Each structure stands twice: as structure tokens, then as C-alpha cells.
Amino acid sequence: MIGSAVKVFIAEDHGVVREALKRFINSQPDFEVVGEAAGGLEVAGKVQESKPDVIIMDLSLPGMDGIKCTASLLKSNPDTKVIALTAHEEMSFIRECLAAGAKGYVLKRSMAEELRLALNVVSRGGTYLDPLVSAKLQEMLSQAPDSSSSANKLSEREVQVVTLIARGLSAKEISKQLAIGVKTVETYKARASEKLGIRTRAELVRHACEYGWLKDELR
């Protein structure tokens, strides 16, 4: 995406909110809106036409809700990043969004500044949660199983690889960062996944969030 604008698609059923989002995103350096949809059932076709880098996804879309829409889209567009934009603050929505593959979660009541930050972080391969959501997540973590009990199942290198995968890095990017081969990265990932009983990348992100492995990104 270097040297060209990050292409953004907006899935939002409220016309006034959609127009406000378009104006805001187009006013940001290096971002441009390339498509929009007002209902979940029309998102897939329009995304295939516009081929966005990032999708801003309302969770309460008519026809097909945003969580189901996210999961469906990412099966055929795995490199596309999804940022949930919603009024829902319940942990059940946050967990389901992360499990579906969303890379960002922003509340509508704190929209402008947090959305700007989310766009920058997510478009660069990271994960971003609204600070208000992070507070709820941290509260949940305080009641969750001890993160060390999960990490102790893994070697130090396996923890590093799992954490970087959860933060959105590719195997090639991880190999450069850790100075190991791509095949070695895949081996660590496979071993860690087996030890943790994890089958998908979405489950890995959810596990990393629940055990506080992404805490540096939640601040």
C-alpha cells in the first residue's frame, strides 16, 4: 500500500452516518473511500468490485449482520482488514468479532479519533481495540485463567510467533523480525497451535486477547 492511498469500503445502513464516515475518511491523508453498502447481503458483491484494503463494518446491518458478513468475506478475501464500528460494548460482540477475523473494534460514541487510529494501525497489519473496549477486556482478563499457565505450555519462541501472528504479521514478516526462516515460523505456529488446541487464526487472536498477549496494543 506504500505510495498509494489505502482503499476503504464502508458497510453502514444509516445514510447520515455513512456520509459522515465518507467525508471523514476522505479527509485523512493516504485513505480514500472506494465503495459503500447499506445492507449485509450487498456487501460481498460490492467488495469484489472495489477490492478495498480495509472495510469499516457496522455490526447491525440488515439482511446479514456484520459479524456473519465479516466471517463470510474473509473466507474469500483473507488479506482484507475489517474494522468493526458499532454501538455494542458487550464482551460477547467483541469476542465474536475477533473470532470472525476483525482486526479492529471501534465504538460509535468515540468514533472520529479512535477510527483514525484504527485505520492507521489495522492498515499496517496491527490489531486495534477502542480504549473503552480495552477497559472491559482488561476487566475480563483479571477474571480469566492466568496467562502464564497458557504461555508455560509453549516455548519462548512459540509465544513470540503466536503473538506476532495475532498482531497481524505474515510468516514472511515474522521471519524477518525474528531472523528465522519462514518454514521455521510455520513449524513454531503448528506446534503452538497443537499445544493450545487452536485451529484457526481467528481463534489464535481471541486466545491472545483473552490471555493478555496483545496488551501492548490495547493501551
Map the helices and strands:
Elements: E1 6-11, H1 15-26, E2 31-37, H2 40-50, E3 54-58, H3 66-76, E4 81-86, H4 91-100, E5 104-107, H5 111-123, E6 128-129, H6 131-143, H7 147-151, H8 156-166, H9 171-178, H10 182-196, H11 201-210
Parallel strand pairs: 1-2, 1-3, 3-4, 4-5, 5-6
Helix pairs in contact: 2-3, 3-4, 4-11, 8-10, 8-11, 9-10
Which descriptors would you attach to this protein?
single chain, 219 residues, alpha/beta, Rossmann fold, Arc Repressor Mutant, subunit A, six-stranded parallel sheet, 6 strands, 54% helix
Counted by DSSP, the helix tally is 11
Helix fraction?
40-55%
Architecture (CATH level 2) name of the largest domain: 3-Layer(aba) Sandwich
The CATH C-level name of the largest domain is Alpha Beta
Count structural domains.
2
Structural class: alpha/beta
Biggest pleated sheet: 6 strands, parallel
Strand numbers in spatial order across the main sheet: 2-1-3-4-5-6
- Rg for CA atoms: 17 Å
- The rounded distance between the terminal residues' Cα atoms is 26 Å
Quick one: how many beta strands?
Answer: 6
| Mean pLDDT, all residues | 84
